[in-house]
Write a structure and sequence with these properties.
Elements: E1 2-6, E2 10-14, H1 20-26, E3 44-49, E4 52-54, H2 64-68, E5 71-73, E6 77-79, E7 83-86, E8 100-113, E9 116-122, E10 134-139, E11 142-148, E12 158-164, H3 170-176, H4 178-182, E13 186-192, E14 204-209, H5 213-225, E15 234-240, H6 249-256, E16 262-268, E17 277-278, H7 281-289, E18 297-301, H8 304-316, E19 324-326
Parallel strand pairs: 1-7, 14-15, 14-18, 15-16, 16-17, 18-19
Antiparallel strand pairs: 1-2, 3-5, 3-7, 4-6, 8-9, 8-13, 9-12, 10-11, 10-13
Length: about 325
């Protein structure tokens, strides 16, 4: 373990095989972050002394200007010695539940859509997280990526993820292959993420695209079981290219158990289907809710272009940033 001092703001210890970001979060420090994967650039730091191993020097989260100024990403730096770093801690990033890495066993697998697989993993300890958070999934000691939990926290140690097949993706293809996945060694590291369910008085809008479906299901399920939110209505917008990318309304109602509090609006961007709205999902939201959108708490997960469009639409509608919740995945 190496001692990592944060200039003027305390210190923590980080294992040689961990990265600075997650080492600090494990010890309850509010290191700023979002994607945990080198894409967003939120976790920029300066190393004032000591040595680190930069795992991804070309990470898109750093601009050329950042590199000229010697900035690094905390999510991509493993310590090679004691270090002093410069970063501004953010109270909003202080973890409510300390993340940890642990071994899990594959318990159950079922297809959700033509290219999304739901996997159930079992840990020895309770599954502690807040609906909407994510974990890092490791398969055969290789980091697959961040995936949001689709279920609710539970004492039984059940973690449910929905994994979208990536064309020519070595690790996702492994999980989609029955024989290979049975022999896979799987670990999860979490929980992480700031776009989790909030106990706010406003009705809720959930927007899901692609593999962003999982955290939105967890948010909706969380509303259903939270006594503080028992009167909240949920608008659930699910966007896909084709009808086969979408949930059926019955699937969503069975999973969320919100009853009459749920309004489901599916939409396709490249198919015209009777009974399903067509267009980009941010356009559909604007068409359905219009000026009423500002009265809602907005949760969003999906491809970065979709999330960016939702954020721009919300800002143009005058919605305060604190009413918009998303984690950018890259």
């Amino acid at each position: 373990m190496y001692k990592i001092q944060i200039e003027g703001q305390g210190e923590f210890h980080c294992a040689a095989d961990d990265v600075l970001l997650r080492g600090g979060l494990r010890q309850g420090l509010g290191l700023p972050y979002e994607c945990n994967a080198g894409g967003c650039g939120t976790c920029k730091i300066e190393v004032l002394s000591g040595e680190v191993d930069n795992l991804w020097a070309e990470a898109p989260g750093l601009s050329d200007r950042d590199r000229r100024k010697g900035r690094l990403l905390a999510c991509q730096c493993r310590p090679k010695s004691d270090c002093v770093i410069k970063v501004r801690l953010d109270e909003q990033c202080t973890p409510k539940i300390l993340p940890k890495q642990q071994a899990v066993k594959l318990k159950h697998v079922q297809p959700i859509t033509h290219d999304i697989l739901e996997i159930h993993l079992q840990s020895d300890e309770p599954a502690k997280f807040i609906p909407g958070q994510y974990a890092l999934l490791w398969v055969n000691e290789q980091l697959l990526r961040a995936y949001s939990m689709a279920n609710l926290p539970n004492d039984e140690g059940l973690w449910i993820f929905q994994i979208r097949r990536v064309p020519d993706g070595k690790m996702t293809n492994l999980l989609f292959d029955e024989q290979q996945r049975q022999n896979a060694v799987i670990q999860i590291d979490g929980p992480y993420g700031l776009a989790h369910l909030q106990e706010q008085p406003r009705p809720i809008v959930c927007v899901a695209g692609g593999s962003g479906l999982a955290p939105m299901l967890a948010i909706a399920r969380g509303v259903a079981v939270n006594p503080q939110l028992q009167h909240h209505k949920v608008w659930f917008f699910h966007g896909g290219r084709e009808q086969r990318d979408l949930l059926t309304e019955q699937q969503l109602r069975d999973w969320t158990e919100l009853g009459s509090r749920l309004n489901y609006v599916p939409a396709t961007s490249s198919e015209l289907i009777e009974g399903i709205r067509s267009g980009f999902i941010h356009e559909v939201i604007d068409d359905v809710l219009g000026e009423q959108l500002i009265q809602h708490e907005i949760y969003c997960a999906g491809p970065p272009p979709m999330v960016k469009s939702i954020e721009q639409m919300a800002h143009q509608a005058g919605i305060p940033q604190q009413q918009i919740h998303f984690d950018r995945f890259f």
